[in-house]
Design a protein that fits this description.
- InterPro entries: Crinkler_effector, P-loop_NTPase.
- It is a single chain.
- By secondary structure, this protein is of the alpha/beta class.
- The protein folds into 3 domains: 5-199, Rossmann fold (3-Layer(aba) Sandwich), CATH 3.40.50; 205-271, no CATH class; 280-482, no CATH class.
- Helix content is 30%, strand content 20%.
- The protein has helices spanning 5-9, 67-79, 96-109, 135-141, 163-166, 183-193, 205-210, 220-226, 230-237, 241-244, 250-265, 267-271, 308-320, 324-336, 344-356, 450-453, and strands spanning 15-16, 25-31, 59-65, 85-89, 114-118, 121-125, 130-133, 150-154, 174-179, 197-199, 283-288, 305-307, 361-370, 373-376, 383-386, 391-395, 409-413, 464-468, 477-482.
- α5 links the parallel β8 and β9.
- α9 crosses α11 (250-265), α13 packs across α15 and α14 packs across α15 (344-356).
- Residues 18-62, 204-252, 258-353 and 415-483 have low confidence and may be disordered.
Length: 483
């Protein structure tokens, strides 16, 4: 006989969240019209409008609901009983985690319990309370004792050693997982679980016009510049100015206090933050791929890491230079174009590189691997690489490498998940830049690098790719970016 969630909790070391913060949480569900689906959604406002959860302090949290989320819910209800789960895939920052929250709210509104794995923590939601669990407890929930419970998983936070349990063939739970581009985990879920993959589309032009209206007027500028991502806001505006080596521009500084206060009121944000995580310490990698050298075989060396405050510094300097209007237009182009599906990361990347292009050159210095990281060496001769100006050009994943080699252009992927190169520096030492909006989003090193390794009509000496250091594997040598 299947056990209830409350009965299962009695067998675990589950800890009920302190009742002194008991209150209600208000989710104002903003209904956005259906885009790129078979028929318009005319069922009225989403339900529920207000959810009572006896765990959080009074919170006024805005949850933006795309109509794709309703389609995901329909698939969950359709597959439950016949499938083992559903994998949500899409570009970084596209709203996969928000979709998990939507499914959680919908389950609780129907008095159905759910498990949430988020930021390396496990939470059990019953009708009356919320419990924190250990990873060992999670094995019980995917055993045969508990039937048909909904488990929501943010795969970007799941350690590899948990996969055996999550993919257990005896599990009767229905798992909905959200994942940024990750070829290995696609393979695990599709091959071992045989579950369908549901790809979320990027917001289109009409949706872009609706989003700012869902937030206070004073935040609309920030939304247009940085996108509707509260995590990105808090990371940017809680960094000390001296860490950025520039002061925050006046246009943004006037909103800083208001924004931090608003985020501080969001108890969900603080409750589900990873313990001990320092938001200002995120890092990014510059990955260097060597091309074919004269008389030498092709090499695939990877290299170097760089702190993300440098990237933020570039963006802030761009705003400081009175280019807010250009930032907004860039964001609109790359995030919400009706003909493109490009994530916000590309916009930040191009803006950062445009600032770099204001210099006459950058210096590439030799580095070596020490304790898993690359450190600049005292030997070796630095290479000075000239920087040229260029225009923006869109290319697709089917483009040939020899069609994207102009030294006068930014080559920006038309697909948000496309990890190939997009910007080059003139001369034999050609450099490609990429950036992702989250420290946990990544690109598999072998994907899309063919143009840098074996180009059809041009030789590449270096290629730089920006991605998180949790994933990147550094080898013995590379180059260090200065400038």
């Amino acid at each position: 006989m299947a056990l209830t969630l409350d009965e299962i909790l009695q067998k675990t070391q589950a800890t009920k969240i302190d009742s002194t913060i008991t209150g209600s949480i208000n989710f104002h569900l903003h209904r956005l019209h259906r885009e790129r689906w078979d028929k318009p959604l005319d069922k009225g406002p989403f339900c529920p409008v207000k959810i009572e959860i006896q765990v959080f302090a009074d919170t006024d949290s805005t949850l933006i609901i795309f109509t794709q989320y309703a389609a995901v819910l329909e698939k969950v209800q359709e597959f439950c009983g016949s499938q083992r789960g559903l994998l949500l895939a899409g570009s970084p920052g596209i709203g996969k985690t928000s979709c998990l929250w939507y499914l959680l709210v919908e389950s609780l509104s129907r008095s159905q319990p759910a498990i949430l794995y988020y930021h390396e923590s496990v939470y059990a939601f019953t009708v009356t309370a919320v419990y924190t669990l250990t990873l060992e407890d999670l094995v019980i929930f995917i055993s045969t004792e508990l039937q048909d419970i909904l488990i929501l998983v943010d795969l970007d936070w799941v350690p590899n050693d948990l996969w055996t349990s999550l993919l257990s063939p005896v599990s009767h739970a229905f798992i909905v997982a959200a994942s940024s581009p990750n070829r290995e985990r696609y393979k695990d879920w599709v091959k071992q679980c045989r579950i369908p993959v549901f790809v979320l589309d990027a917001p289109r032009a009409k949706i872009k016009n609706i989003l700012p209206n869902s937030f206070p007027h004073r935040l609309r500028l920030l939304l247009n510049v940085y996108g509707p991502d509260l995590c990105q806001f808090i990371r940017l505006f809680t960094l000390e100015d001296e860490k950025l080596e520039v002061s925050i521009p006046a246009q943004i500084a006037s909103l800083k206090g208001h924004l931090v206060d608003l985020l501080d009121q969001n108890k969900l944000q603080s409750l589900f933050s990873a313990p001990g995580m320092i938001v200002g310490e995120a890092t990014h990698n510059l990955v260097v791929t060597y091309g074919i050298q004269s008389g030498q075989p092709s090499s695939q060396e990877m290299c170097h890491w760089i702190r993300s405050p440098l990237i933020l510094c570039l963006v802030v300097q761009m705003a400081r230079a009175a280019k807010i209007t250009k930032l907004r237009s860039m964001y609109s182009l790359f995030s919400s174009s009706s003909s493109l599906s490009v994530s916000r990361g590309w916009a930040l990347e191009v803006l950062a590189h445009e600032l770099i292009s204001g210099m006459t050159e950058i210096v590439l210095s030799p580095v070596s691997q020490e304790n898993g990281h690359l450190q600049q060496t005292v030997t070796g001769t630095p290479i000075s690489v000239p920087i040229g100006s260029r225009t923006i050009k869109i290319y697709t994943s089917g483009s040939r490498p020899d069609t994207t080699i102009s030294p006068d252009a930014y080559y920006v992927p038309a697909e948000g998940n496309n990890p190939t190169f997009d910007a080059f520096i003139p001369g034999e030492a050609s450099i490609a830049f990429q950036m992702f909006i989250s420290r946990k989003h990544w690109v598999f090193p072998e994907m899309g690098k063919h143009g840098l390794r074996t180009p059809a009509s041009v030789r590449f000496d270096q290629g730089l790719d920006c991605m998180p250091n949790e994933i990147c594997v550094c080898h013995t040598e590379g180059v260090f970016l200065q400038g």
